Structures are given as structure tokens and as C-alpha cells.
Amino acid sequence: MSSTLFRTKKVEQSILDTEEPEHALKKSLSALDLTVFGVGVIIGTGIFVLTGTVAKNNAGPATALAFVAAGVACALAALCYAEFASTVPVAGSAYTFSYASLGELPAWIIGWDLVLEFALGTAVVAVGWSGYIQSLMDNAGWSMPAALGSREGADVFGFDILAAALVLVLTCILVIGMKLSARITSVVVAIKVTVVLVVIIAGAFLIKGDNYDPFIPKEQPVEAGASLDSPLIQLMFGWAPSNFGVMGIFTAASVVFFAFIGFDVVATAAEETKNPQRDMPRGILGSLVICTTLYVLVSIVVTGMQHYSELSVDAPLADAFKATGHPWYAGFISFGAAVGLTTVCMILLLGQTRVFFAMSRDGLLPRFFSRVHPRFKTPHRPTILLGVIIAVLAGFTPLTELAALVNIGTLFAFVVVAIGVIILRKSRPDLPRSFRTPWVPVIPILSVCASLWLMINLPAETWVRFGIWMAAGFLVYFLYGRTHSRLARREAGEEQPSA
Q1: What is the pLDDT of residues 324-334, one digit of tens each?
Q2: Hey, what domains does the chain have and what are their CATH numbers?
Q3: Distance from C-alpha of 375 to C-alpha of 222, rounded to nearest angstrom
Q4: Rounded distance, CA 111 to CA 359, Å?
Q5: Integer Rg of the chain from CA
Q6: CA–CA separation, 31 vs 78, rounded Å?
Q7: Residues whose CB falls within 8 Å of the CB of residue 418, separated by 6 or more in sequence, listed in order
Q8: Which one of 11, 85, 219, 338 is separated from 189 by 20 to 30 angstroms, measured CA to CA?
Q9: Are 290 and 279 in contact (CB under 8 A)?
Q10: What does pTM read for this prediction?
């Protein structure tokens, strides 16, 4: 039985399966499109919100170093993703990579994990977008009814209609086609990058050197309930990460890591890329470099404009400009954040539908969802299903505590992909690799260590919820996926491989 659980799907077969007419996605994306997708999904709530949180509670002006640390951890993973995406240019990202290197059960686990990660990420971002829109409406003198705007404001019934509507509109765009999605994303990304650059340039003239003293605070007054100590670390090692000093920087890095979530989504579009061997590494690494640079510059500017102990937690950039006597920028930043979050939501939804599509094409989920639209050549069935579910989730469910599951899900995928690179180098050294991760196995091992370090900095409650979701995944696999797997059917002679 163990041999069947860890059977691998040959890379050649994965590529052949993408050529089946009823299950083939349209190739329309370039390296620029992929880079725009990456920047579009990475720059979101992280840059507009998390900067103030970690600066005030953990790292002070050294928040820039926390972004660098998180960026380095992502860069290690990105190098592994780049090799896999160019070698196995098939939809599904880490799921497909795992199937080719680790086996069917690990692939199922990572696919199940990604479904949760992208679903919660989309819902969380949609709710955040709704909050920005409602704030802009309030500034204009308009207000949403409590029952349709904020769940917390409703006495009996509450449904965030704006968040749900955003998800449904983006679902329609994704059904129509990837090229349309890329064009819309390009326009929106241009707007929000412009907003970020305005913040950096305008804020640079308002910096006061005294605000950088001390650059690495030895201790800060942490607000009640704001501690980010991990009970898991105390349980495992007998000590907890510090909320100040040098250790505060690493604690902050595990938090601001959320701001980088999304570059791995680029890999899910490999099958829809014109020249994946060349363009996937460019898109993944290029978007990560651009966003890390912007994050570092923004954190340096905002902590220089206002002392870290006085920064707002909810809207640090906007409030920093208000504190320096420039309230006009606050509305401008809120507008940029609201516009920018639309692309984050859309690309996370895109990533989830491609993983779901790949799993159904392999038979681990019902193959009904693996047929593409006859005209648009998009996986319309899983897109519509998941879009509706996430719209309901965003409308009804308070997601604040569940947001940490997005972090742990992403980090878990990073670990699996890094291990997969090492294994595939050993098992299939003959595969053509247009991009090769340097210094294997050193880089993948460092990626695993960095990801695990960030994972153990997450609260124990997050690990419990993650474990429950994984247990449910095992149940679905053994009740359905294992017996319906196309790979299993081919080995039993019940289905002929694609030719």
C-alpha cells in the first residue's frame, strides 16, 4: 500500500495530459504578464497595514530588516519554485511539483493545503477591500446599512455584500479569460505602484532623523493582546521569541511574511504561459525583487516620518501623513489600497482554481471540474464553484483569527517544494532544466530551515487548525482520491496514458 501512496507521476506524462483538447488551457501569458501578476498579488494589505503593527510592537525602525529577512526566506523558496515551474510547466504549482517528485499522497496533501490557503487569502483580502471602500464612502458622506456593510455592526443579520460582490465579479473575469485578467491586472498594478512610489518620494521629505533613535529598540511597550510570542516554541524549546531587540526583528519577519504571500501563485499559471521555460523564472524572481525593494523603502520612510511608538496599527501610512500635517495623502493612500487589493483577490482566486483544476484532471477530485470552457479555454467549472463558496465565506465569516492559516499553508508549501527539488535532481537528473536552482542542496535546505523557523513562530492555535484541515484532507483522499486517481487507473490498465 505504501508504494501506491508514494507513486510519482512522470513529468512527461504531466505535460502530455495538458495537451488533451478538453483539458487544455490557453497559452497567452508573457514574462511581463507574470511579473505584473506577482507584483499585483504581493503588494496588498501587508505594505499598507503590517508596517505599523510590527514597528510598534516588535522591531521599531528595524522593520526594514524584518522585511529583508522575510524577503530572503521567500527568495530561497522562489529559486526552488523557478526551477520546478520551468521544468514542469503544468498548472497546480506545488501540487504538480510534489506529484512529480514526492508522490501522490504528498501531492494530495499539498494540494489540499493550497486550496485552503488561497481560499482564506481571497476571503481575507476581499473583506479588507470592503473595509477600505466603506471608509472612502464614509469620507464622501455615504454609508452602508449596518447589516450589509460590517458584520460586527449588525445586531441580528450581517452580510458583507461588498466583499461578496467583489469575489463574484472577479470570478466572472477569470472565466472570460486569462488575457483579460492580465490586462485588468496591469492597469490596477500601475495605479497601486504609483501610490507606493508617491508615499516613498513624498514621505522622504518628511523624515526626521531623531525618529530612527533607537534603530533596534531594546524593548517596547507592547499593547495588551498584541504579543506575538509562540506557545509552540515554549513547548518545544523552553523559550519564546522576544518582542524587542534583535529577536524582535525575527519575530516581526514571521509576521510581515504575510505581506509576501502570493509570488508562489505565479507558478500556478505555468501552463498558460507562452514560453514557461524562460518566462516563469523571470516572473517569479522579478516580482519578488521589485516588491521587497518597495517594502523596505516604505518601512524606512514611515518610521522616519513618525516615531515607531506613535505609529497607527490600522492605517500607519495614512496616519503618518496626517501626523505630519498632510492629510490629503491619507485619502490618496486609502484609494490606492482599495484599488490594489482587487488584484490581490483576483490572483489568489486564480491560483486556487488552477490547483483545483489540476487535482481534478488527475482524478483526485471529480473530473467534472477538469473540463475547460469551449470558447474561453478556462477552467470555468471550478472557478464558478470556488468563487461562489469564497463569496459566501467573505460575506458571512469573521476571518481575523483564521488569517494566520494562510501563512502556515504557504510556508508548508515552501518546505515541500524545496525538498522536491533535491529529490527530483537525484531521481531525474536527465530532465531538461532551463533554470537551475544554484547550490543544490544548500539553497533548498536553507529554504526548508527558514520556512520552518517562520512556522514555529506562529501561534499554537494556528497549528491546531491546520492539523484539523489536514486530517480532513487525509479522509477525503482515502475515501475518494486514492481509488479515483488516473495514475492508479493507468497502472491497473483501466485507462490508457495520454499520447
Answers
A1: 888 888 778 87
A2: 11-492 (1.20.1740.10)
A3: 56
A4: 7
A5: 22
A6: 15
A7: 76, 77, 80, 444, 445, 447, 448, 451
A8: 85
A9: no
A10: 0.84
